[in-house]
C-alpha cells in the first residue's frame, strides 16, 4: 500500500522536529510573508492566501532538509559530551545552507516580483539574520528534547545496570555457595588440615578474601553512578588470584592460571565479577585433569584491552551425566553490562568472543 504525501512528510521528521515545526513555523511564516512581500501581503486575502501557501511550501521543504542535516549531525556527534561540537556544527551548517536557500528565493522574488513584492537587498539581509535567529531557536528546542531524552535513557540504563550487577553477583555467589562447590572446598580444606596445616591456613585466608570481595562488590552496586559501580582491574585481579588459589587447591596440577597485565592498565575499570564469570565458565565446561590441565591466561593486549583465554577440552555428554552444554548466561550478563555502559561512553566497544578448536577467547575493553 502506497503512503500518502502527508505520511511521507510525517516520517521525515523526528518527534523533536515536529514540535519545532509546530512551535516556530506559524510565527516565522507571517514574518517571512511580510519581509519578502511587504505590507501589501495583508491588504488582500487572495494575496495573503497565495503568498502563505507558496512560502509555506518553500519553508517546509527547507525545514525538512535542515532536519535531515540536523539528524546526520546528531548521529555523528552523539552524546551529551559532544554537545558543544554538535551545536557549532548545527549552527554553522544551517547558516551556510540558509544563505544559499535565501539567495535562490530572493532572486525569484526580486526578478518576478511575486505577489507585488517590494523586497530589497537590505531586506534580504534582515530576512537572513531573522532566519538565523529562528534556526538557533529551533536547535535550542531540539537540543532540549535530546538532552531530556538522553537523560531519561541514562536513568533507565542506570537502573538496568544496577540490576545486571546484582544478577552477576548472584551468579558468582551461587557458584561459590552451591552445595557442590562448598562440599569440594570444605573437603579440600579438611584434607589440608590433616596433611598440611600451614597450607590449610593459607587456604582459609584466600577463601576469606573471596567472600570479602563479594560483600564489598555488593555494597558498591548501590552506587547511583554507573561508573561508580565498576571496579579497578587491580582489585578484580587480586580477587581472581584468591579465587584461582581455591581452584588450584581443589584441582591440583589439573588447573593452571597465568596473569600478566601491564602496570599502566591496573587502574582501568571493568564491571565487577567479570573475570570470575569467565573463569567459572572455563572450569564448568572443560575437562580438568593433571594429565590434561585446563590453562587460563589473563593478559593485557597492545591495544589496551584485556584478553581472557583458555584451552578447549570440552566435557563430553554421556548417559547419566549432567548436561554441560553452555547456557551462555555468564557471557550474556557481561555483554549486557557493556552495552549499558556504551550509552554513557559511546566510544566504548563491546567484548569480542572468539572460539576455535584450540582456544576460547574473550577480549574485554578496559575503561579509563
Question: Descriptors for this entry?
Answer:
368 residues, alpha+beta, Heat Shock Protein 90, 5-stranded mixed sheet, 7 strands
Entry summary:
By secondary structure, the protein is α+β, with helices and mostly antiparallel strands. The protein folds into two domains: 5-151, no CATH class; 178-365, Heat Shock Protein 90, CATH 3.30.565. 64% of the residues lie in helices and 10% in strands.
Give the helices and strands, then pairings:
Elements: H1 5-11, H2 15-37, H3 45-76, H4 83-112, H5 121-177, H6 179-195, H7 197-220, E1 231-232, H8 233-251, E2 255-260, E3 269-270, H9 274-285, E4 294-300, E5 305-311, H10 329-344, E6 352-355, E7 359-365
Parallel strand pairs: 2-4
Antiparallel strand pairs: 1-3, 4-5, 5-7, 6-7
Q: Can you describe this structure?
A:
- It is a single chain.
- With 368 residues, the protein is α+β, with helices and mostly antiparallel strands.
- The protein has two domains: 5-151, no CATH class; 178-365, Heat Shock Protein 90 (2-Layer Sandwich), CATH 3.30.565.
- Helix content is 64%, strand content 10%.
- The protein is built from ten helices and seven strands.
- The strands form two sheets. It has a five-stranded mixed beta sheet, with helices on one face. A two-stranded antiparallel sheet has the order 1-3.
- Strand 4 and strand 5 form a beta hairpin.
- It is rod-shaped, with a radius of gyration of 32 Å.
- The protein starts with a helix and ends with a strand.
- Residues 4-12 and 319-325 have low confidence and may be disordered.
